[in-house]
Design a protein that fits this description.
Blueprint lengths: L1 H38 L2 E3 L5 E3 L3 H7 L2 H33 L5 H7 L8 H11 L5 H8 L13 H28 L4 H9 L4 H12 L1 H17 L2 H7 L11 H11 L3 H29 L1
Antiparallel strand pairs: 1-2
Length: about 290
């Protein structure tokens, strides 16, 4: 009986300490999410009054061809970005972990781009890939004038450049996560593999990668979320969504409809679609990982 009372007291203290955090999360996260679901079925311009209109906003969205253009842009960023954002920092982390020549220098500087604001990174890439920027100047100096393009003026070139900008700005954080996971691998496993005659590639792909598999899967999930929910600032700074909707993503589309067009109900419905889309993709990713396990 005394043990039960002690356990109940511990639980009560646990709930007491967790309650303030849960209250803050409820007020600032759960409540706004529920409000967005409510406003998505209303005709709301951001004011006090919101009139119920059912699923009209959703019907209008799915009948709007611009929505499918924007969704396609997000999927292109997803297909291009997630492999790059996952593999590139993984390779850098492996090289640093193996202590290649100069690894201390790279260990110091690789995180530097992550310290820069998105505005600075976006402006820098916009300058580099501008029509009179360094990239086109280099191409012209090599006699490749035909390849000197207005890189950010159309979706087929601007979207890959946005993916590159995101990779350059954020790969340091992913490297840090990978290195933390690699440091938890028992060094004796690597020593045993080396004694068995394993080379760098074999140690990396048969020892290091299996040891950090869960962390790689976690990073993939983060990158998927990133592809749908962290592109706004890059698009705003680098292309402003243009021309037309060629480089517009769902986040920016929500901003255009909600804050520029003043149709908050429509923007709320777009937000719900984005929320559900990210949840479904992450659920599919989790199911695939479970099957592999």
């Amino acid at each position: 009986a005394c043990k039960m009372k002690e356990k109940n007291a511990q639980k009560l203290w646990g709930y007491t300490f967790v309650a303030p955090a849960l209250l803050i999360l409820g007020i600032f996260m759960l409540l706004p999410i529920l409000q967005i679901f409510y406003y998505s079925v209303t005709d709301w311009n951001g004011g006090i009054n919101a009139s119920y209109i059912g699923l009209k906003n959703y019907v209008d969205i799915f009948n709007n061809p611009d929505f499918y253009t924007v969704l396609k842009n997000n999927l292109i960023i997803l297909l291009l970005g997630v492999p790059l954002w996952t593999i590139f920092p993984l390779l850098i982390a492996m090289l640093i972990y193996e202590e290649i020549k100069g690894y201390k220098f790279f260990k110091t500087v690789y995180f530097f781009p992550s310290e820069l604001s998105i505005v600075i990174v976006g402006t820098m890439f916009k300058t580099f890939f501008g029509y009179v920027g360094p990239i086109n100047m280099l191409l012209r100096s090599l006699g490749l004038d035909n390849l000197a393009l207005e890189w950010l003026a159309e979706g087929r070139t601007s979207l890959p450049i946005i993916v590159l900008a995101v990779n350059w700005a954020g790969f340091g954080q992913a490297v840090l996560i990978y290195l933390a996971a690699m440091s938890a691998i028992d060094p004796s496993i690597h020593e045993a593999a080396q004694l068995d005659g394993a080379n760098w590639w074999q140690k990396s792909f048969f020892v290091t990668l299996p040891g950090i598999k869960n962390v790689v899967e976690f990073t993939i999930v983060l990158n998927i979320i990133h592809a749908f929910s962290q592109m706004f600032s890059y698009v705003l700074v680098m292309t402003n969504g243009g021309p037309g909707y060629e480089s517009t993503v769902l986040e920016y589309f929500i901003y255009l409809k909600g804050f520029r067009a003043g149709d908050m109900g429509y923007a709320s419905a777009l937000s719900v679609i984005l929320f559900v889309l990210v949840c479904v993709i992450n659920m599919l990713q989790s199911l695939l990982n479970r099957k592999e396990d």
